[in-house]
Amino acid sequence: MRSLFSVFSLAFLLSISYCYRGQYENESVQASKAVNQELQLIWSDEFDKDGLPDPTKWSYDVGTGCDLPCGCGWGNNEKEYYTKDRLENARSENGSLIIEARKEKFEDRDYTSARLVSKGKGDWKYGRIEIKAKIPSGRGVWPAIWMLPTESPYGGWPKCGEIDIMENVGYLPDSIYGTVHTEAYNGMIKTQVGGNIYNPNSEKEFHNYVIEWNEEGIVWLIDDVKYFSFKNEHKDYQTWPFDQQFHLILNVAVGGYWGGKHGIDESIWPRQMEIDYVRVYQ
């Protein structure tokens, strides 16, 4: 997660979203159905047992992610403390995973949340990654479903690559973003490559957030509607570090350079991201 985008006007989001839907809806559904006939489910979590997330599938990133005096929160100026094995922040409940950001004092922070990772327990090179989720809204909320490499053979971020399956900022609740970061294309040098789609009911209804990833490129879909694709240029790792195993990260950040661009509404907490399932096909 995680860099800044230019924030488009709502009118522009509406226009490009309808364009995406009109252009891609039929072909995306047909293509996805054809692909899915050849795929096999290799990893999943249906969250059907109440309690803490399944420890055979999920670990945690813990803390603030930054030891500098500035306390810059995972490098993004986030304001939460990510906890471990704490039902208040991450739990399976009634068939869903709940990741809950809360306003409360914890260690040296005023907010808590959870950041679940499948590293070492779910790592894949290529496939269809599908997450059915409802996401929270509200000023200062920054939910994300994304991927990082498990071994990082090309070096640290952004050389290693990053795949953002779904990002949203709470002050733009109807806008869904999909992005890649590489050494050549990343937010630090304002060359990140991504797409977005207008989706006005992301908080009230479940939607399927999907990437289909192979050696030729990555395609982003919501409910099997394609809205962005990134092609392998077949040059070098600077443009395509996505030839290695990646793992999933699920989190709800508080504030941050992007999520907190317009401040944090202190009256809205707690806020939850609810995930019905995670499924990986190859």
What does this structure look like?
The chain is mostly beta strands. It has a single domain, classed as Jelly Rolls (Sandwich). Helix content is 11%, strand content 40%. The protein is built from 2 helices and 18 strands. It has helices at residues 10-36, 73-77; strands at residues 41-45, 59-60, 80-82, 90-93, 96-106, 109-113, 115-117, 123-124, 127-134, 141-149, 162-167, 175-181, 193-198, 207-214, 217-222, 225-231, 246-254, 271-281. Strands 1, 3, 4, 5, 6, 9, 14, 15, 16 and 18 form a 10-stranded mixed β-sheet that branches. Strands 2, 7, 8, 10, 11, 12, 13 and 17 form an 8-stranded antiparallel β-sheet that branches. The longest helix is centred in the N-terminal third of the chain and has 27 residues, at 10-36. The chain starts with 9 loop residues before the first helix and ends with a strand.
Topology:
Elements: H1 10-36, E1 41-45, E2 59-60, H2 73-77, E3 80-82, E4 90-93, E5 96-106, E6 109-113, E7 115-117, E8 123-124, E9 127-134, E10 141-149, E11 162-167, E12 175-181, E13 193-198, E14 207-214, E15 217-222, E16 225-231, E17 246-254, E18 271-281
Overall CATH architecture: Sandwich
Shape: globular
Number of helices: 2
What is the C-alpha radius of gyration, as a whole number of Å? 18 Å
Mean pLDDT: 89
Query: What proportion of the residues form beta strands (DSSP E)?
Result: 35-45%
The proportion of residues forming helix, as a percent range, comes to 10-25%
Counting helices, strands and paired strands, the structural category is mainly beta
Please give the CATH class. Answer: Mainly Beta
Per DSSP E runs of 2 or more residues, the count of β-strands stands at 18
Largest sheet: number of strands, sense, barrel closure: 10 strands, mixed
> What is the number of independent domains?
1
Return the CATH topology. Jelly Rolls
Order of SSEs: HEEHEEEEEEEEEEEEEEEE
Low-pLDDT parts are 3-35
Ends apart, CA distance between termini: 25 Å
